Amino acid sequence: MISNRRKLFLWTVRGGMWLATAITGALALFLMGYVLFRGVPNITWELLSTSPSYLSGRIGILPDILNTVYIIIAALVVVIPLGVGAAVYLTEYASNKRLVGVIEYAAEALSGIPSIIYGLVGMLVFSNNMGTSLLAGALTLVIMNLPTVMRNTQESLKTVPQSYREGAFGLGAGKWRVIRTVVLPGCVDGVVTGCILSVGRILGESAALLFTAGFAHAANGFWEGLRSAGATLTVALYVYAKEQGEFGAAFAIAAILMVLAFAINMAAGMVTNKFQRSKK
User: Fold this and answer.
1) Rounded CA gap, 152 and 165, in Å?
2) Which of 49, 57, 150, 218 has the lowest tally of Cβ within 10 angstroms?
């Protein structure tokens, strides 16, 4: 029999958890609802399809959308091979466990460094050598997201049963062939999910880009844009809200970013579910 004091304790704990859940959900719904309520009415085709004109007072975020796409592509092209390759080496090839532990600890430490510090380092290392540009911002984001991609890939590689590797070795396959045909296909869902989530972090980053990518609102092609300064959507949100006082445009950008964040999270979940169903 459970004593009355024990029952009271359990009900108190359960009530506290329900209260914490309700408060968290209410705050999240309020934030999303407020941003969408203030931002959606300000989203127009002119805002999305034009460049800003200070002479006519027109506000447009087309250059910011293009710059965001450019910097995401440039960062992923570099960070995915580096992160996945480092994870494969540390998990499948490295024999010095102490060295592996040191590298994993360093990656965990890098994940907790504030992004403004990455921006300062990126400004001193990249911007001072190649100028303020989207490429400098992309390389800074590579350093920021490399630990995330590497650790996610490592954890995914560890989920592949050792018996799969031993069976492939028993059939005469070499080390790289086992990794390429058995290990990586067995954990591709985790790798893809980690890459998609890193896109969300790149999309929402602003502090590091303020120091490295700049504030320009010029629409350029891909290669020219990478060599030029440019504001992403998050940087444009800061500029419109803080520097120019255009809160309508700022809330419109915030609503767009929120919708994109939802889409990225849904894509990650769909990819994970699809690969899990394919394994059954």
Assistant:
1) 20
2) 57
Question: pTM, whole model, 2 decimals?
Answer: 0.84
Q: CA–CA separation, 59 vs 44, rounded Å? A: 10
On average, the pLDDT of the chain sits at: 85
The tokens describing 231, both together, are: 């504001």
Query: Cβ distance 225 to 139 under 8 Å?
Result: no
Torsion of CA 85, 88, 89, 94, to 10 degrees: 170
Q: Which two tokens stand for residue 14?
A: 């359960």
Q: How far apart are CA 256 and CA 36, in angstroms?
A: 9
The answer on pLDDT for 3 being more than 80 is no
Give the bridge partners for 53, in sequence order: 58
- Burial class of residue 171, CB neighbours in 10 A (0-12, 13-18, 19+): exposed
Give the HSE-up count for residue 19: Cα atoms under 13 Å, Cβ half-sphere.
6
* 242, two tokens: 């803080």
Q: Which single residue is written with the structure tokens 């965001």?
A: 68
Gap between the Cα atoms of 71 and 183, Å rounded = 30
